[in-house]
């Protein structure tokens, strides 16, 4: 049977896969969610503690379901991936988030960059770089303000075509981040072959860096690795002052987490910009 993150999404019985009625409904609802305009993009600030400012925002998708209310991406992204709907949904996120960032720049808000999650299936579409190029062109957002967050699992599949796609993306001038770094099933070899700019330390390592010696060691190793390879490094899931002190004293000043702000709607981002001296 298939693993599920939502709990009761699939269950196993007498050697066959059955989808729960609930997940079938969710799947057919997901089909209509785009055309019914039910998706909302939230944004979570990424801060640079050195200058104490918001430097970027990560776009995080929310589904405002007509009867169930807000549904977490942990619940519907796996369904979107399984059904292929992640491709049009991902395209929608990219276009709308780029448009929003450009609007903020034009309004005189801080010139933050946008970080967008790209699913494995989207990445392996041969058309990804032309989609990005077209989106930047249509929205007027300059490529220096776009970061794509890829997971290790998305990029290890086909090494030759991955390198080719990445080179095309780099030619556009965007940056590439490895999301959840260290949690995927891949060797470190890709770091020297692929044009990667940023490592994101997964929140499971950051969560208890102060108490857990192993997580502290892993986090420090990722920070040094990034420094030695000349990459930027950002810690996610930062919730406490102790974590901030630890990260700063070990050379990581880019952070993202509830300590600064949870993902918020666009109006809330504007409030954060206006009061960003608080950080
Ligand atoms: P992710 O890309 O690793 O995003 C980080 C997740 O950690 C987000 O959950 C965020 O709300 C949460 N988070 C941020 N700071 C903290 C913190 O301090 N503590 C804790 N405990 N959590 C924190 P979210 O928004 O529920 O998204 C879950 C996952 O869904 C994302 O994980 C990403 O894999 C996926 N996802 C979300 N939006 C998109 C999208 O537009 N496209 C794709 N392909 N995947 C997406
Ligand atoms: Ca991410
Ligand atoms: Ca992550
Ligand atoms: Ca994650």
Automatic annotation (TrEMBL):
Protein name: EAL domain-containing protein
Span of domain EAL: 23-277
Shown residues within the full chain: 651 to 929 of 929
Source organism, top-level taxon: Bacteria
């Amino acid at each position: 049977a298939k693993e599920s993150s939502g709990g009761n999404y699939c269950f196993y019985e007498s050697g066959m896969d059955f989808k729960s009625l609930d997940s079938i409904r969710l799947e057919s609802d997901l089909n209509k969610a785009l055309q019914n305009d039910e998706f909302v993009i939230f944004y979570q600030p990424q801060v640079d503690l050195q200058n104490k400012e918001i430097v970027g925002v990560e776009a995080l998708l929310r589904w405002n379901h007509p009867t169930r209310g807000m549904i977490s991406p942990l619940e519907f992204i796996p369904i979107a991936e399984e059904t292929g709907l992640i491709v049009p949904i991902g395209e929608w996120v990219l276009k709308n988030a780029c448009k929003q960032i450009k609007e903020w720049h034009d309004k005189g808000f801080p010139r933050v960059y946008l970080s967008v999650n790209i699913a494995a299936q989207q990445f392996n579409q041969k058309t990804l770089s032309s989609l990005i190029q077209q989106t930047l062109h249509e929205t007027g957002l300059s490529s220096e303000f776009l970061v794509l967050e890829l997971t290790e699992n998305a990029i290890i599949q086909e090494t030759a075509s991955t390198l080719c796609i990445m080179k095309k993306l780099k030619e556009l001038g965007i940056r590439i981040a490895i999301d959840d770094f260290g949690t995927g099933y891949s060797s470190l070899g890709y770091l020297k072959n692929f044009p990667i700019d940023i490592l994101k330390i997964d929140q499971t390592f950051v969560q208890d860096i102060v108490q857990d010696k192993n997580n502290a060691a892993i986090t420090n190793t990722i920070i040094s690795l990034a420094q030695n390879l000349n990459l930027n490094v950002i810690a996610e899931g930062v919730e406490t002052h102790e974590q901030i002190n630890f990260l700063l004293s070990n050379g990581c000043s880019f952070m993202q987490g509830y300590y600064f702000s949870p993902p918020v709607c666009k109006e809330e981002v504007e409030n954060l910009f206006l009061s960003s001296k608080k950080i």
